[in-house]
Design goal:
Elements (H helix, E strand, L loop, with lengths): L1 E3 H4 L11 H14 L3 E8 L5 E9 L3 E6 L4 E6 L9 E6 L4 E3 L20 H6 L9 E7 L13 H11 L17 E4 L2 E5 L2 E5 L5 E10 L8 H9 L7 H13 L4 E4 L7 E6 L5 E3 L5 E3 L5 E4 L4 E4 L3 E2 L11 E9 L1 H10 L5 H6 L7 H15 L10 E5 L7 E6 H8 L5 H10 L3 E5 L2 E6 L11 H12 L19 H16 L3 E2 L8 H7 L25 H11 L5 E13 L5 E13 L6 H14 L5 E4 L7 H10 E11 L2 E9 L1 H8 L9 E8 H5 L15 E11 L4 H9 L5 E10 L7 E11 L4 H14 L3 E2 L1
Parallel strand pairs: 9-21, 11-14, 25-26
Antiparallel strand pairs: 1-8, 2-8, 3-4, 3-6, 4-5, 6-7, 10-11, 12-20, 12-21, 13-20, 14-17, 15-16, 17-18, 18-19, 22-24, 23-24, 26-27, 27-31, 28-29, 29-30, 30-31, 32-34, 32-35, 33-34
Helix pairs in contact: 5-6, 6-9, 10-12, 13-16
Length: 787
Amino acid sequence: MKISLQWLLRHIKNQITLDAPFVEQLVKSFSLKTAEIDSVSYWSLDPQKVTAVFIETITDQHVITTSRELGKTFTLAHRVDVFVGTWALAFITDHDVRWLSCEDMGSSKNGLMPMIQGADFLFESGEWRRDMVWEDYVLEIENKSINHRPDLWGHQGCAREVAAICNLTFTDKKYEDIIKKQLVTNQTKTALAQNFSIERDELSACTRVCSCVVDVKMPHASVPTMASFLARVDTRPKDALIDLTNFVMHDTGQPMHGFDRSCLSGDTLAIRRARNDEKLTLLDGVKIELTDQDTIFADSYGPLSLAGVMGGQRSGIAQETRVLALESAAYDAASIRRSALRHAHRTDASARYEKRLDPYGAERAIGCFIMYASELDLIAHMPQKVAVLGDTAQAPDRIVQVEHAFLEQKIGCTLDQATIVQQLSKLGFRVETHHNVYTVHVPSYRAGNDISIPEDIVEEVGRLHGYNTIEPKFPSREMRWLNQSIVFKKRKLKELCAYACNLTEAFSYALYDEDFLQRMGYIPTRTISVNSPVSAIWQKLVTSLIPHLLKACESNHLQSDSFRFFELQAAWELTENENAIERQICACCIAHTYKQIDFYESRATIERIFTHHDMNVIWQPYNASNAPWWIAQAVDNWMVPEQTALLTYNGEVFGYAGTVKPQLCSKLFAAEKAGAKATAFVAEFTAQTLYAHDVAKKYHAIDQKNHWNFDISMFASYDFSVLSLQHMIQETDKNITSVQLVDYFEKEEWQNKRSVTLRCFVIGSDDREALVHKVHTKLRAHSIEVR
């Protein structure tokens, strides 16, 4: 975006000498404190090389003109945008005379300066040059650095910023006060003049619109001063009325548009949603097909303009325009951005509307137009009414409170209260202080997404104070010992699942996939919803990891027939008191697309995890009355209750394991074979239970002279885990130092029993028969059959 410094200084009260040292310091301060300036260009033009010429005759090849100031006649190249009896500008070179171009006036774009208007005696005497600017500096600001500052997309906002950082006095022109007496507010429809009204459809993207009708004087050729300013910011001047709408946009940052009233059909100017297949020819001649996602201005005949982007040819301003219908509006920023992209028309107006402009900028723009039009004698009289439709209620001030100590702590230096108040006031904030607390009233042009929290005030104070003036210091931090035991325990658990159990780790989001939950037919309860989800399908934090693993099976079932997954991640729940609780969960899944999963083999896989942690985990038949809510919810939705066990340790249920409903498995990942039935075995338990189980290791000196071992084979119920049998035998006699698993075997016909062989290691006991008999007796006392 380009900013003319001469234009900017029109909003500064101080007398400034626009020389190289001042510009250099301004650019440096602006880049450090406000926004990055990409380039600075100097422009100047010898005023004696420019003369006003009167159009005498127009032929097919030439235009015959007269410079009454010089008393000379010039034959210039033919052009179609001038008329006999009007004035234009010519450039005198060393060899000839030609039309004055936009490039001559500092523009980087091609084109000729348009016809001009003014008193004849000014052009005849050369006095018109006194109001012109013949030397200027143009700053090009990096657009990305001001995307969050819509107030800086105009010369007035940039002037306010320059006044604050250079300690100058800003002239705050209250343009909206000019039309205060004519304002009429309504929600949907208001009459602007006799037999003419404006109407707003509440379904459109327009939230607020300001409009009026003005009678304009003829002719309305361009004003030289305004045209030269527009040329330097790369906006081609065309006509006084068109130039003034563009001038208002570049001055206030608020776009506006004018319609030729004589070209409008009917008695109502409507802003509404377009209808599918409606067509519109834009001002640049491009024909577009509208959709119901576009917002347009329309009359009874059809579309007039693509709101917030570009006007249409049918109602464009021409030299014959006598009555002008003006509008300036506030829109939903996203809607304008999508329309501009959809129709490949990103204009100066749409670029500003995409930034969520000040909702009260519309009145400011209309007031600015009326003020300049009156000064330039372009309108016959003030408009009868100025209508404001939409959200007409004055929004309350956004207030941010911040403590002085908080500012000093965050910025890292000592600050003066009076200076802070002065600097913020220069930016348009209203500041009240009480007991070292600032109450900051945010102006509407900064109350969009820019200023809302105390840290935003810290940023404003810090940049105006100057980050380069703050003495750099390394941040101080109290170093404390960090307990890494959980990290290593988590790593150990992952290694056990991967290497001891031959499972593959799965990585998933911490959010449920809503589409997959629908395919499962699962509606989770006690979930925590995200306030601003990145997607409609990622809205709720997980309460279980099993849906993630089943989705992994579904996603990979075309590449493989069998799956062995595990995942270690957090799950969340919402308590009855609306408190959030986080649990570390370990989930395992063993599945096949068409074969039956062996329950006992899968159980043995999960048992390895507990055995490695020296945990005596009891597998109890599922009982809903003993199950925590998250286990009961899992069993109700995807488990077979009769083939589900509760995992219990030290009398507390900490997980579950068992068979997934075959119908659900077949629905999600069954193989593409006739009669294929997918099956799955899953286990899910709280990892904190494993982390909290610390086993104290004791080491004893071994008597090398008297040590021996013996084996015991037995039929034991599944109520006794291998670990519990080992503990039972080892507790029989203190000389039994360890008991190791040699082998075990299971058969379906054995029902609830299995064959287990254990090896007992003994040190320090000579009576072998007595010790073996003692062990056998204890086992039989627990109804264990010793073979």
